[in-house]
Write a structure and sequence with these properties.
- There is one protein chain.
- The protein folds into two domains: about 250 residues, ABC transporter transmembrane region fold (Up-down Bundle); about 200 residues, P-loop containing nucleotide triphosphate hydrolases (Rossmann fold, 3-Layer(aba) Sandwich).
- The protein is about 60% helix and about 10% strand.
- The chain is built from 15 helices and twelve strands.
- The strands form three sheets. It has a six-stranded mixed beta sheet with strand order 6-9-10-3-11-12, sandwiched between helices. A four-stranded antiparallel beta sheet has the order 2-1-4-5. The chain has a two-stranded antiparallel ribbon with strand order 7-8.
- The structure holds adenosine-5'-triphosphate.
- Adenosine-5'-triphosphate binds next to helix 10.
Length: about 525
């Protein structure tokens, strides 16, 4: 089309000659057809790439160690929203960039056929633009990273708004503090950085189009004044150079998506979600089974959370042996390390020093099979609506209904194809639903982090006197964190923590006795 327009412009058109019109129309149809086809292919490719990116990212979130984000829940929230949203355009723009680079190559080869000396002048101008753009990109890179971090802070404060809604509704002074002292400055910082980077990029775009017009101006001038080229050559070249400005402008403007997207890629790398890494090894182990065991032991284990001051440990050093089938209570004051101990036992945290042994064999690096031995309810548990068995299959509706009834939830929650109808219950009722999930999973070790704290007296009693002994009777190992001292006597063993150390480890001499006296009423037997 370009060459046809050039031929018409340089040779002229005779009055009444419709042939060039038809030829032009033919070329335009070809441009439309190939343009539409390429856009369709690009859209499909872009859609596939974005979908693949989302699948990859969510898989990596699943694979990511709990420990990595233990202190930074807002990071995961922000990454899922911000990073996916900004990497997607980067992925989408990649094929378009390739397409425009190809156009540039085609136009340049056409221009080379028109006039190599004029192309050399144009290349000089474009070279300056490319070098200036690259320098700007390097300069803005740190700003883009700072912008990503500033947005992270904004997300953290947004979380205050959703999770602290009730507190904020009650306390106008706090609501004002969050809005004026936290959110507004954080948004202000993000806005400043956004203005800086987009001003820089906008300046670069304006500069690039000026350079292209300047190059056309200089080409016309030098073409006539110094190189004494024929008018037709200069005109053909100028039209070609103006065609070239479109793809060049696109490539320069893509720097926005590239800048934001690569900042998000670097952010993912920082939080351990590197898209280049290979998560397949851990994924392959997910299906692994725990295997038979008799004793889990911690030897000289210490743990310190990231960001804690040097030398301060949350737990340890600790030595602890747990026998299969034991009903163990972990007790102690707030912050004494009970939850941390539980996370270490389940190898959700990795000891800083010491090791976890299964039947005297160190656990090693592949912790997945060991984790499959555990099911339980964390202090800050999350409730999934789908009830699955140990191998991930939906539990039968009939079985779920039986469990719901035994947990006093039969009339509150319906079930259809393994999915619970609602999770919006009271805190105590939600904990019972969480317990239902544990029964569905039916693993070797059941753990409970202050499960009974939100239960009414009846259910609390039922938990300690019926549920826990039932689990033990089924051969399960039970580790329960508790403050309910009136039930301590029901455990086989009570381990007490203080300031991260075990200060007492008491075993009952006759583990059978207390259970014989326990409440075994049929209407509350689970399963
Ligand atoms: N995610 C975390 N990041 C940093 N420090 C933590 C984190 N979780 C716990 N800690 C610290 O580790 C220590 C032990 O905490 P842990 O939650 O294990 O105590 P706990 O005995 O379960 O307390 P509680 O009875 O209040 O639940 C505390 O000093 C606490 O400040």
């Amino acid at each position: 089309l370009l060459s046809h327009i050039n031929a018409m412009a340089t040779h002229g058109v005779h009055a009444g000659d419709t042939a060039p019109l038809w030829e032009g129309a033919g070329w335009l149809v070809a441009v439309l057809a190939t343009g539409a086809a390429s856009q369709f292919i690009l859209a499909r490719l872009g859609g596939d790439l974005v979908a693949q990116l989302r699948i990859d990212l969510s898989r990596r979130f699943v694979d990511l160690e709990y420990e990595t984000l233990a202190n930074e829940k807002h990071t995961i929230f922000g990454s899922l929203i911000e990073d996916v949203a900004s990497i997607a355009p980067l992925v989408l723009v990649a094929p378009l960039l390739a397409y425009n680079v190809l156009l540039v190559v085609l136009y340049v080869s056409y221009l080379a056929s028109v006039s190599p000396p004029l192309l050399a002048i144009l290349a000089g101008f474009l070279g300056v633009t490319v070098v200036a753009s690259m320098a700007l990109e390097r300069f803005l890179r740190r700003r883009f990273d700072a912008l990503r971090d500033a947005n992270e802070k904004v997300f953290e404060y947004f979380r205050y708004l959703s999770e602290g809604k009730k507190e904020l509704a009650l306390n106008a002074a706090r609501a004002k503090h969050v809005a004026d002292e936290l959110i507004r400055p954080a948004i202000g910082r993000s806005r400043r950085l956004m203005v800086q980077v987009h001003t820089g990029l906008g300046f670069n775009e304006a500069w690039t189009s000026t350079v292209i017009y300047a190059s056309v101006f200089v080409i016309v001038y030098i073409g006539y004044a110094s190189l004494a080229l024929p008018q037709t050559t200069i005109m053909r070249f100028v039209i070609g150079a103006l065609f070239l400005s479109g793809p060049v402008a696109f490539i320069v403007s893509a720097a926005r998506q590239v800048g934001v997207g690569t900042a998000s890629l670097r952010h993912l790398q920082r939080v351990g979600l590197d898209l280049d890494g290979d998560g397949s090894s851990r994924r392959s182990a997910v299906q692994g089974k725990g295997g038979a065991w008799q004793r889990i032991a911690l030897r000289g284990v210490t743990y310190a959370y990231a960001g804690e001051e040097e030398g301060r440990v949350a737990l340890g050093p600790i030595d602890l042996d747990i026998q299969r089938g034991e009903l163990l209570f972990i007790v102690g004051g707030n912050g004494s390390g009970k939850s941390t101990l539980l996370l270490l036992l389940a190898s959700l945290l990795t000891p800083r020093t010491g090791e976890l042994l299964i039947d005297d064999v160190p656990l090693g690096r592949d912790t997945q099979p060991h984790r499959q031995r555990f099911t339980g309810v964390f202090g800050d548990f999350f409730l999934f609506p789908h009830v699955l068995d140990a191998s991930g299959r939906p539990l039968s509706d009939e079985r779920i209904r039986t469990l719901l009834t035994s947990l006093g939830l039969g009339s509150l929650v319906q079930v259809e194809q393994g999915e619970l109808s609602k999770l919006t219950l009271s805190t105590g009722q939600r904990k019972r639903l969480a317990l239902l999930q544990c029964y569905a999973e039916d693993r070797d070790i059941f753990f409970f982090d202050e499960w009974a704290a939100d239960q009414d007296t009846h259910f609390r009693d039922y938990f300690y006197r019926t549920l826990l002994p039932d689990l033990k009777a089924q051969g399960k190992t039970v580790v329960a964190i508790t403050h309910d001292d009136r039930y301590f006597a029901l455990a086989d063993r009570v381990v007490k923590l203080e300031s991260g150390r075990i200060v007492s480890d008491t075993r009952r001499r006759d583990p059978g006795v207390a259970y014989a006296a326990g409440d075994q009423s049929a209407d509350h037997r689970v399963g």
